[in-house]
Amino acid sequence: MEWDFSREGERERLEEWLTDRDWEIGTTLAARSALRVLPNLNGLWRAGLGEKQPSDILLPIFRATLTSAVASIWPTALVNDAELRLAALAAALSTDSALSALSAALSARDSALAATLSARSAALSADSTLSARSAALSTDSALSALSAALSALSADSTLSALSAALSADSAAGDAAFKPAEVMNRPLWPDGENHAELAENWQRLRKNLTSGDENWSFWIDWYERHLHGKPPQDWPLLGKIALIPEEDWEKGAGHVNLIIARLSSPSRVKTLANSLPNAETIQRNPDTGLFEAIPAEIEQKTRFRNAINKVRESLDDLDDYRTINEPLPLDFYTKKLRKKMDRYAGEALPLHDAFEAAYHGLCQTCPSSETPFGQAVAELINDLQTGFKDLRDDPEVDKTVRSRVRRKPHLSSVEAADSLAPVIESVAQDSDAKLKETLGANFELIRQPLSAEEISDERVSEERANALYDTISKSAKVQDIRHREETSRYQTIVDAADDARKLGQGGDVLAKTSNAILDFVSTYWPLG
User: Fold this and answer.
1) Is the pTM of this model over 0.85?
2) Which of 133, 274, 454, 512 is the most buried (most CB within 10 A)?
């Protein structure tokens, strides 16, 4: 089905089409339309809201949108039908005060107000569908959500994009319609947000991360919808939809702590699985400490040949040296020797050591007309061959590719102190080698930015690799810890108790996991 909402009578045509379809189709389309225009809530920061704060408005709108999305794929979400219906109704009604505040502060055509109406109507559509009270009421609510979404747009190009997106969603709007499949698609058919909404989302995202109410779950939740990956954890979203009303009423600070405790195991697992590092992190059964086991090297002969060739070139360098005074290249050769001794037999750290030494020596290489200069040139050549050979190892290649996708902000250096409790917690539970690696990484990460980094507006590759290694190791340790405690915190009541512990400074596991997740979502996004 193709839609074009710039065409007169298109909304009436949509109403007629929805009337002849299963109610869940309208609920699904309503939820996705509300999600698409949610970035326009960035307008809350320019609205005069009186005694209310933007978070007082955002939380019920996020809640209504999440609940409508969960309801659209029922029973996949594995939550009780009656409880979810009541949750959908409560979520819709919870937006009333937000609408009142916005109506007083904004014009009737404001996009933030329209986005709020869209979320409310989507939740009402979910309530009507789940309660089977009235097909007409469910369709009316779905249409209201869609109409409000259309009203939230100001650019013709975005209206056209929304028409295309709704066309894609409703293409299987008959017997083949599968709500869960549709809800797991990217919000936009081409996988990209559109100019008006993309800009608003980045502004909203920045506003959310600038406060102290821990919105990292909501950022991750929205971006999963936006990109269609990683897939949503629907059972988790079902639990969040069923958080008791009295907790929602206590505001964003309180309920976001509950959500953090509910969501951190799943989100940490997703993060850990997304960061290959040519190693396995495990708890040693004899010592009880965490350790890093390097991945098995596939091409052992080629690996040994690359190592031996570089060692020979380093020895030749000493044989041809005629100057006793320190040289600029000594910094790189000493560092290289130290890492080769420490990481003998480990492909990834040696790959990194070879590449770093190669780039450093290229900058300090003396004239190749002398025997010593020729020896340096030979070492440079062997290093280049060596790190390329090591890159051919599948685990090394997988890790390097993963690193390229991560673009740490310059501000990540100043924010690195927020990782200190995480690294301290992980190091205390690790063997000597893992503890030493984490300490060396953290020392490098926290060093002042160099003039070159500031000029290039990006962190050095060595610093970026240290940050990747630290977060990968820490996330994997946290994932193991969460799995070890799976038998605990099975209910929302337990999660609420954890939230109270968090407020009192307890539950180190939850706090350290959320410190990693907050840092990643704010300073270390996918490129």
Assistant:
1) no
2) 512
